[in-house]
Amino acid sequence: MVEGSSKRKRPNILVTGTPGTGKTTLSTALAESIQFRHINVGDLVKDKNLHDGWDDELDCFILNEDLVCDELEDVMEEGGNIVDHHGCDFFPERWFDCVVVLQTDNTVLYDRLSHRGYNETKLSNNVECEIFQVILEEAKESYPEDRVVALKSDTIEDMSRNITTLTDWVSNWHSAS
Ligand code: ADP
Ligand code: MN
């Protein structure tokens, strides 16, 4: 097990991936099943004003990375967190024992995001992000490769299998101390 995770009694998991891949759905179900805290970074940013205003072009808040990291530091030190966010390069590497990148078939993702009412630009930006595996690359650049796992998230069966896989992983996790 990686040094630096030594003080935590329970691990921290980052669930990342392109918008629409199922991060919030998986994180909610997993948190309930293993009694971990689910931290939806988008909601946190909105609720606690951890942003520098609204980006009209990208149609989202301009997240303030320093404020987000300061807000989460203490709780991350405790362990037992599932952090749900579409980006992963600004969190301290030491926070996470496992980085899950959800992946969804392009046409499935397109349908999910159009259901969500995304405009053409936002739709094509996100589908392109998925096609080019932008988040997986970001995760591999930001964390040791043995901590990053890509999981398919096309169907309900995929979701159930992912919950089982991660529940097993957590029960086998031991802190380094
Ligand atoms: P994200 O948080 O990554 O943006 P959500 O969890 O909000 O994604 O999921 C987007 C939509 O896709 C929701 O309607 C959800 O019910 C559906 N969904 C998510 N994961 C799956 C899956 N594995 N199989 C089928 N539908 C899914
Ligand atoms: Mn979400």
Automatic annotation (TrEMBL):
Lineage: Eukaryota, Viridiplantae, Streptophyta, Embryophyta, Tracheophyta
Function: Broad-specificity nucleoside monophosphate (NMP) kinase that catalyzes the reversible transfer of the terminal phosphate group between nucleoside triphosphates and monophosphates. Has also ATPase activity. Involved in the late cytoplasmic maturation steps of the 40S ribosomal particles, specifically 18S rRNA maturation. While NMP activity is not required for ribosome maturation, ATPase activity is. Associates transiently with small ribosomal subunit protein uS11. ATP hydrolysis breaks the interaction with uS11.
GO molecular function, one term: AMP kinase activity
Protein name, entry field: Adenylate kinase isoenzyme 6 homolog
Residue ranges, annotated region (LID): 115-125
A GO CC term assigned to this protein in UniProt: cytoplasm
Region of interest called NMPbind, as start-end residue ranges on this chain: 40-63
HAMAP family per record: Adenylate_kinase_AK6
Source organism of the structure: Lupinus luteus (European yellow lupine)
The keyword Nucleus is annotated on this UniProt entry: yes
Assembly and oligomerization: Interacts with small ribosomal subunit protein uS11. Not a structural component of 43S pre-ribosomes, but transiently interacts with them by binding to uS11.
UniProt catalytic activity: AMP + ATP = 2 ADP; ATP + H2O = ADP + phosphate + H(+)
